[in-house]
Here is the input.
Amino acid sequence: MKFVCRLVGLALLSVLLFGCGEDAAEERFRQELVDKALNDDVSKAGAAFLQKNALREGVVTTKTGLQYKVLKQGEGERPSITDLVTVHYEGTRVDEHVFDSSYQRGEPSVFPLNRVIRGWTEGLMMMNRGSTWMLFVPSALAYGATSPADDIPANSTLIFKVELIDFTAAE
Here is the structure.
């Protein structure tokens, strides 16, 4: 919690300083605050994980930095960005802490594909119905420097096992 408070404080400080003029020293100071926020231990752990993970057999890295591994290849069509997807999934941090799981709830979830984190949108649009993939989502394609929940610190790289059960066109 202290980390989140510090990060929020740094963000607030940088916002307050934003309007202070164009002095080079002020600009350097603002950039140092941003660099510090983006290079914390959580960010470093995620970068190290992705670097090592990229070397694993079967792991593919896209142009955006999303990594995926096909566990089961489905058949047929792929969802489009405006579709509602029905999925089973489990989300973990790089330290293997499970922060969310439809499997544990015993019921798949339904999401509009354009209303989830960018890593999910990109990954699911590549999956065929019936596929099960591992998605390794860099912080920039997840929640970035924000913390959406106590279980997901800011700058977290996230790992998802995702089973694309079905999809339908949004109404």
